[in-house]
């Protein structure tokens, strides 16, 4: 690979925003026929580097060369025309259009003055087949799961891109089988000579598929490494700027101490369910425990959490809270019952993008108090300052629009919102998805701290390691059915995997 000519060179790239130096003299090189990981914590500059390359943002200093020719894309459309295509973490497609329309929007094959729908559908099927997908391409995109939508976005980018493909957290919504399918496509494209930039927070994925790694930290280049010569521990240390703290012992100690005493029951659900979403289940949630909902994508973990919180109204069964029969029909019912919920999709269901950090933090507390009991501006500012400091939220000001923060800091804002309501139960659905190792560790520590203070936590994560690290007990789901509960010595990788697969 060393002798392979670079397909892309970015030299001395700098970019500043008000109050923030996002990139400072960063170099990046992508070779033809390689998969190159771009790594770093949230706020390290990864997204900004990609935005500069694709014309979303304009660089302040530096030069970009594609196939040896100097370029400067002024828009994503111009970058796409140059042969640079991007798939972002959040699917940016049109759910009301068909799969075929989403694949070819803006470049529809024509027959005379009319769109050739037969040709569009035929080519759409061929494009998806390249990724091993067989779909009814005439159906609207919203008929399919987030995972399928993500794969459609990747198929569109693959079909457009001729030289460089950027995958920005493409695997966040995919299960293991779908990830492997994507890797097969990536390897095929690599063998065809395409250069692929792969942004992910899953370390095992980097080592499974990437040839080289570039690490950024605080907007600066830490280094560029061959994957085979960089041990995982060293990669993490370079990303967070210090030796990685092995938390397993402290987490396990806390988990062991929590097991010594059977805490008071907070919620008891009997036959609770919602038709078409989650089959009736029994579940007990005790104060001060971290209950994991384990299972593959589509197993019913999120659906279970939404029914408990009231985001989806249960149409079967009953729920007891503190030994009192309680009906949770709406999120407001959930809030009043002492339940907080950090949803899986922070962009669409968590943050209010056009409100400030302060406004986002106080939302749930204001709703709980009622809109007639308005929280004064002075009190809001005091609360925001306190929680920004408590959770180390990186923001120039509480008045910064939350959409301008990194993903990890947006997640901290959502956590602050619910911690402010002093919940008895906090539901965390994929709270560490798509965020950096350092912030991930902080959130895991917070989960344990909350349980020690008597707060019950429902914890959902696609990363089994952090489930094993944080949870006192696990409910395992498969095909929207709760199939088992695991505790104590049963909570280990082998047993959990066997149970999920149906072998326990």
Overview features:
globular, alpha/beta, 504 residues
Give an overview in words.
With 504 residues, the protein is an alpha/beta fold. The strands form 5 sheets. A 6-stranded mixed sheet has the order 6-9-10-3-11-12, sandwiched between helices. The chain has a 6-stranded mixed sheet with strand order 18-19-20-15-21-22, with helices on both faces. A 4-stranded antiparallel sheet has the order 2-1-4-5, covered by helices on one side. The chain is built from 18 helices and 22 strands. A hairpin with a 2-residue loop joins strand 4 (61-66) and strand 5. Helices cover 37% and strands 26% of the residues.
Q: Radius of gyration over alpha carbons?
A: 24 Å
- In terms of DSSP E residues, the strand content is 25-35%
Task: Report the end-to-end length measured between terminal Cα atoms.
Answer: 45 Å
Shape: globular
* Major sheet attributes: 6 strands, mixed
Distinct helical segment count: 18
> Mean pLDDT, as a whole number?
86
Spatially, the strands of the biggest sheet line up as: 6-9-10-3-11-12
Fraction of helical residues: 25-40%
